[in-house]
User: Which sequence fits this backbone?
């Protein structure tokens, strides 16, 4: 097709037809995540989702998240579906900590130029993770923004809405001194600490994306792109039976930055460093960058993806049930009078 | 404070303390948007919002949007609150077209380095627009992503959730051939067409941000940063009384790209070009860039921010009521048998 005379949107770097084509290819993928509450298809202005019946006092729990600079690993490796999964699982965990199960998810994907294959891969990852978490991929925005993003790069944000019966809402108010902390193992860095990790791996250690992570037997790509774990299926049975008093998702800020968010005033935590072996990936990063232990704990999850707080008498049973559900879990420490997190 | 030895997160470009400080300053602003359904404060992992009572079959309507390259105008002008308003109003209009009133809003704000003043300005704009639309600013993510964004630049996405009684949901199924199209005037470009507009104004016309837009008596900044209009207050009284058969928010793709989204199979629209005078801003852009009329209509809203579809017998009364509510409104054309949009 000849270009129209004068300036056009295509000449300005925006290809509306390509965006339309990419959207069509995504529809089939996304359709798989629909459930009986999903009333709309992609293409409408807004996504429609019927509030499920059966709640006495339904509370919506929502969260917005990004993948952060883990995206740079996706750009380097050319693998774009895992960051889609990362984003959904991160969002799922963020509302899970308030007792909510997910209803629907929307994304925002922005690039200088939308590359159809990349968009499809990202959305496929999101759709797969939505399916696995029983969550509808209800819509999203794909924005072509010339001059904002370097060629081949994009940013990605997710937005999730879940639901919880008001009487089952977790807000930390049930936590008491003496309560037990149960750790659930992470699958890697999840989605935090990537600015530092990239600096260590690519600058201080001088590695490239396909190189082996020293001593780990896997590549940099495999080590750093491992998917953020969703704890929904393991924790769902525990959301309504009252034994879980609080949950803390270990994201940016690590254990010291996230655990206090669910401890009430006058409460702190003692985390026993001898209760687990920090996974080798974190040791390699610490040594590679000459990073202090404090800084490591403030930036990375150090092998702990989620912390479950229970009454001390319930801890062993809950930890065992979580292990039976396929999670690496262990008693990490306890809630104490005071404030902050002591790594002892 | 001395830097810890070895690499740190701060050295890698991420300043967690600055991010914390900015978050605190925002809390007071955001608190104003809370209503009786808002159960959470910022700082929790997820935002909590009680489903309002009184609906027989409540449907949640959600949308994700960005501001697009209008952000570049904010960067050039140093004015960051209006894009916050743009984003909220865009989202409000997107769910309004399905009959929904907003409940809550979350944002995603990403920058290479979070500048406290800029973040506060953006959030102040969002909080003001949320207040004006009766919508809680429930949370969000501010992401510091070194190496993603040019210094002084950021990206901004918004997520909104609204509610509608299922029997009042608008999905285009009520539209019939012969129905009337009522236009509601836009306040400028709203949030679409900025890649082309910037190319025309800054390249083809060689203007700078503080220069006068030729013949308009206002600066480039004023002309291009005017806030995306929210049509909620004008249309809210019409959402439940059955006279509005469909609404189309005129965003990317213009009238030809958006109006067909709410017309059923076998229906098109005839838009009468003599029914309104395209605002001078669009004439200046068209002449400045030597853009074809077709391309102008495909990229810009051309003065039409929203289209209301009613039965022909209701059109004049509805148009008059919208005018009385402060909107520029007129009969734009009609729904016809066929497909697509004819600009006649």
Assistant:
């Amino acid at each position: 097709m000849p270009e129209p005379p004068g300036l056009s949107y295509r000449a300005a770097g925006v290809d509306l037809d390509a965006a339309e084509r990419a959207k069509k290819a995504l529809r089939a993928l996304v359709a798989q995540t629909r459930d009986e509450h999903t009333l709309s298809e992609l293409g409408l202005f807004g996504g429609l989702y019927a509030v499920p019946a059966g709640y006495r006092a339904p509370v919506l729990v929502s969260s917005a998240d990004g993948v952060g600079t883990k995206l740079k690993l996706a750009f380097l490796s050319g693998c774009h579906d895992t960051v889609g999964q990362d984003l959904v699982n991160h969002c799922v965990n963020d509302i899970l900590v308030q007792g909510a199960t997910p209803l629907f998810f929307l994304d925002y994907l922005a690039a200088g130029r939308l590359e159809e294959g990349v968009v499809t891969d990202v959305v496929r990852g999101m759709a797969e993770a939505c399916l696995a978490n029983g969550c509808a991929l209800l819509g999203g925005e794909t924005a072509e923004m010339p001059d904002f993003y370097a060629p081949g790069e994009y940013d990605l944000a997710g937005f999730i809405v879940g639901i919880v019966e008001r009487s089952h809402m977790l807000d930390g108010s049930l936590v008491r001194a003496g309560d037990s902390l149960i750790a659930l193992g992470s699958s890697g860095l999840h989605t935090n600490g990537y600015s530092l990790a990239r600096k260590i791996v690519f600058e201080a250690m001088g590695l490239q994306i396909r190189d082996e992570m020293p001593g780990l037997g896997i590549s940099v790509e495999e080590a750093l792109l491992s998917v953020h774990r969703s704890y929904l299926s393991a924790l769902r049975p525990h959301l309504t039976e009252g034994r879980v008093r609080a949950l803390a998702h270990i994201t940016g800020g690590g254990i010291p930055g996230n655990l206090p968010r669910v401890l009430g005033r006058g409460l702190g935590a003692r985390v026993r460093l001898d209760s687990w072996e920090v996974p080798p990936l974190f040791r390699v990063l610490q040594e590679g960058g000459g990073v202090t232990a404090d800084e490591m704990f403030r930036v990375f999850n150090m092998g702990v993806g989620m912390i479950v707080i229970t009454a001390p008498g319930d801890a062993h049973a809950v930890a065992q049930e979580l292990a039976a559900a396929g999670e690496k879990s262990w008693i990490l420490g306890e809630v104490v009078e005071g404030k902050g997190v002591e790594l002892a």
Notes: The first strand of chain A starts at residue 47 and ends at 50. Confidence is low (pLDDT under 50) at residues 1-5 of chain A. Chain A touches chain B through 88 residues (CB under 8 Å).
